[in-house]
Each structure stands twice: as structure tokens, then as C-alpha cells.
Amino acid sequence: MATENGAVKEKRKLRHVKKRIFFYSLMGLVLALLVFDLYCEIYTLPSSIERAIQRKLQEKGLIITIKNARAGIFHGVVLDDVTIMDPTFTDRKMFTAESIRFSLPLRLKGLSMEKFSIHGGNLNIPLFPETGEEGLHDVLNFQNIEANIERKGNSLEILYATTLLNGFLLNVSGELRDVFSEGSFISQSAEGLDQKDIAPSSSVSAIPMNTRAFFMNELRNVKRSTFSKMPLLQVHLNLNMKELSKSMVDCKLKIPSFKFRDYSVEEIGGMLSLKDKSLHLDNLIANLGKTGQVKVGGELDLQSMTFKGIINGKLLLNKFQLSEEFPAMKNISIPDKMSDIEIIIGSFSILTYN
Questions:
Q1: What's the sign of the alpha-carbon dihedral 31, 34, 38, 43?
Q2: Residue 203: what are its φ and ψ, rounded to 5°?
Q3: C-alpha 185, offset from chain centre
Q4: Burial 36-56, CB ≥16 within 10 A → b, else e
Q5: Cα–Cα distance between 14 and 20 in angstroms, integer?
Q6: Terminus of the chain with fewer CB atoms < 10 Å: N or C?
Q7: Nearest to 70 by CA among 109, 92, 111, 37
Q8: What secondary structure letter does DSSP report for 239?
């Protein structure tokens, strides 16, 4: 009987030893993984792996350089000091970022790029790509980009993005469709671009040059303005990179007090939408302080830069009588007090003030 009890105790003791061995082995493995993860996240990956990642991105149509690459279980693959060159002018930096992080896991075929985030990004988009190198001086510069993006088939979904454009804070979400073709980045022909391959620097060619020139000039005028607070634009995109004319952009804006040319503006708020090659204004309200307040609704044809719509509200009209923007008012007798107005505009040329 005593012998049997001793055998049972030995079996129990052996089981406990095996459990302890398994537990300590598991803890050792976890610790080793954590140390390895920490090492990889602090120190760069071997140069051969960095070159493989760079080749993987170049296969997708990106002319890219990276300073170093890190990897970890918790933070995925992180590329530091990323530069993407313009595919048309390969000596010009189109995009830079302090870091880009790709989510794990790794697939059997290589690195998964379905989800990625951008930190400290800077994007330059020339407004006049068809003018060659001269057009590289007039660019839209998006600074301090922070974004989370997910690839879905040939499209990219912007889950969240913030950036600064000319002193404006943009919160961006939405979808960029047909960004990829057969696994490559923007290499398909497009309607309205003379069947040339789309590149990020040439996509804006679908917008008439006079429209871009007017926009760039007004952007410079606004840049000279001092805002009381940071202007905010909430932008939702639905861009088709294959047929830009079928794209849509919705924008909710709130612009605090500033001075534009000779006018003091207290606040501008409302909705804008870009679709069917026209900019639609949906109850855009401009508070002009002591000069009055107006509400604007209508659409601006981006091909001809002509506006049609309705303006109503209360205005001190004689303030605008000698303005070049409103030549039709010069020969009208206007009282020097606040007046109710309703102006129906059949066709007003933004470029010629007719």
C-alpha cells in the first residue's frame, strides 16, 4: 500500500515538474520575442530586407527611397524618412514622410500593405503640370499629414486624415477609386487627360488651366490674410482616378474672421460640393460684420468659370459700389443704410467680372 502511495506521489511530482518546465519555457519564449521585438523596433532591419521592401514598393509604381526600416509585433513594419519622387520629374520630391507604418501580418507572398498610416507627411501637387518644369513652382503644399489608410482592391479608403493647406486645417475622409491597376500604382489611362498615364502630378490637368490659375491667385491672396483662429474644412472625397469628371467632393467649412482684399469678414460657414465639373454652393453664409450678412446658393461652372445662383440677406450696399468685383453697381443709386437684398444671377463671369 505504501509503495502504491509513493508511486502516485512521484507521478504528481513529475506532472508538476513538467508544468513548471512548460510554464518557464513559455515565459522564456515570450520574453525572447519581446526582446527581439524591442531590438527590431529600436534598431534597423538588415539592409537586404530594406532593399526588398523598397523593391516591393517600386513594383507598385512608386519611385521611393527610405532611410531605414524597423519591424515589430506591435507596431508592424515602420519605414523612416520616406521620400517618393515625382514619376514625371524624377529629381523632384513629390511626397515625404517622417514615417510610414504598414500593418502586420506578413503573408506568404511578402509584406501585407492593406493598411498603413502616415506620420509627418508633406505632399506637393503641381497645379500646372502641362507647362513642364515652370509649372513646378505653383504647387498645392499639404503639410503635417497624419493619416490612416486602407487598401480595398484597386481603391484606397481614407479612414482618417488631417493636414494643413495654406493655413487651413483639413479633416479628410473618403475613397480614392481606381488608384491601382494590376497591382501597380496609378498607371492606367484616363478620360480627359489625352489618354496619357495618370501620375499624381498630372491628375489636375482635367481641371481647366484658367480655373487653376484663378484658384492659385486667390490662394495667395488668402495666404496674406491673418485669421483670428485656425480655419477648418471637413472634406469627404469620392475621387475616381480613372475618370475624374465623375468624382465628388463634399466640404463643410468654418472660416473665422479675416480681411480679404478691402473687406472684413467675420465668419464664413456652410457646405460646398464638387461634382459634374461644377462647384455647388449650398447655403454658404458670409457674416460681414457691420457691412451685413449674405447667404449664397448656386453653382460655379469650372470649365467657363461662370456662376449662377441667388444671393440674399442684408448689406450696406454702398460699401461695394466702387468695387471692381461689382461693376454693375457703379451707376446705380444706392442708399447709405443697410438694405434687404435678393440678387438672382443668371451668368456671372468670375474671370472678367461680366
A1: positive
A2: -60, -35
A3: 17
A4: eeeebbeebbeeeebeebbee
A5: 10
A6: N
A7: 37
A8: E
Residue at grid coordinates 475622409: 173
Give the long-range contacts of residues 131-138, CB within 8 A, separation 24 or more: 133/89, 136/89, 136/92, 138/216
- Which H or E element spans position 250? strand 248-255
Q: What is the pTM of this model?
A: 0.73
The series of mean pLDDT values per 10 residues for the chain, 354 residues long, is 58 64 65 61 66 72 79 74 78 87 60 78 84 73 92 87 88 86 54 47 71 81 74 87 76 83 81 86 86 90 88 81 60 75 86 74
Query: Which among 140, 137, 149, 141 is positioned nearest to 122, based on CA atoms?
Result: 141
- Phi-psi map region of 234: left, alpha, beta (phi>0 left; psi -120 to 50 alpha): beta
Question: Which has the closest alpha carbon to 186: 167, 170, 165, 200?
Answer: 200
Owner of C-alpha cell 513652382 = 137
Q: How far apart are CA 181 and CA 28, in angstroms?
A: 46
Contact predicate 239/177, CB 8 Å? yes
Measured CA distances, 246 to 157, 274, 279 (Å): 17, 10, 13
Length of the chain: 354
